Amino acid sequence: MKIADKHQKILQASIKVFARNGFFNSRISEIAKEANVADGTIYLYFNNKYDILIAIFEEEIGKIIARIKQELAEIKNPAEKLERFALLHLQLVEENRDLAEVIQVEIRQSTKFMKDYRNRKFAEYLNIISQIVRQGQEEKIFRADILPGIFKRAYFGALDEMSRFWVLSGKKKYSVSTAAKEISAFFLQGIRVQGPDTSHSSMTVET
Amino acid sequence: MKIADKHQKILQASIKVFARNGFFNSRISEIAKEANVADGTIYLYFNNKYDILIAIFEEEIGKIIARIKQELAEIKNPAEKLERFALLHLQLVEENRDLAEVIQVEIRQSTKFMKDYRNRKFAEYLNIISQIVRQGQEEKIFRADILPGIFKRAYFGALDEMSRFWVLSGKKKYSVSTAAKEISAFFLQGIRVQGPDTSHSSMTVET
DNA sequence: TCTCAAAATGAATGGCAATTCATTCAATGA
DNA sequence: TCATTGAATGAATTGCCATTCATTTTGAGA
Fold this sequence. Notes:
The structure is a homodimer. Chain A is mostly helical. Helix content of chain A is 74%, strand content 0%.
């Protein structure tokens, strides 16, 4: 087995164990067992327990950002982009439950310790959203008075809370695509009666 | 000093210390010091460290729910209610930074352990939102196809993420009321151009 | 002032688990 | 087959800290 493989094996085992017990309640010995490796071996690949947590974040989030950016590049319309972002975010959570749980719960826990580092990666993720908003504003599709800095957090927060519920409760009342469509619609159209899509309905006389 | 006072004193000290270090990195001895009390005294008022965390949640969230419900009772219009909810939520976070941090980060951390209990209190909080939505739907102010179960999470999530940013970064680029108005507007009106309040604009021919 | 029960104290205990490191294993090539 | 070296092992070490409890302090009533 190559070195990279063992590194990966320990990382995957850690994601599983951290998701199961939480970081502080996880034992190195349990990770070792899960990875079929001796306790000491872990220290050949990572400096300490905390280092594993950082590695999870660093290595896994990078992949996700890359994938989302790539998929969004194929779409032109900003409204569509936002909807697709929601779908991708929720799909990725569903496909990687354990990772999602670690990122949501554990990394958040230690945010204050890894502030600098974490912020950079996380900010990059959030900025995908604000970039879309700005593009929409330039194209006059989104209102000019929207503050992208608030929007990105609100949008991310809405998706994040939805997926947190799934991750923690283990059950989904609504499908991923239903939730994604619904949430993006809240933001795009609002929830008030009568105003769903005026860019088209404005062509219709409603007297 | 009355017994209730000391209980309270220890609780307040714990909120401070947990917010500062995180639950797992907080020492009973540090809480004791912060509360001007001996280590052992804490065990006269709480069964163990974890018990303190639960008490914080139980006792403090109850107050908050009561206060919000009371303030909302004075408002009739559902749209206004939603906006006020956002403002209250963010104000409460601002007024109780340490508590907010503990609830956001630490309690979330241990959600899986206190699932049953926590869910009941937390669900009650979320349901304030879905109740408003249902009221709005009955009054034909909100679209009938909105799913309140998704909306409540999305709305809460948006506010929560905004306040998490404040709590962790320690600085606010936008004022509380700006953020509250902006976020409630996203959900009420959407972000698209032309559709802010079509209940009026639909009377206008825009061809 | 004295008594006594309740409250408070904080040093000592005990258990736990991250990390270390002396030892063993495995693979390579001579 | 043997020697060498890097990888892997897991038992032992070490330090930490929640919790306990024997002792002291406090304060209310007599």
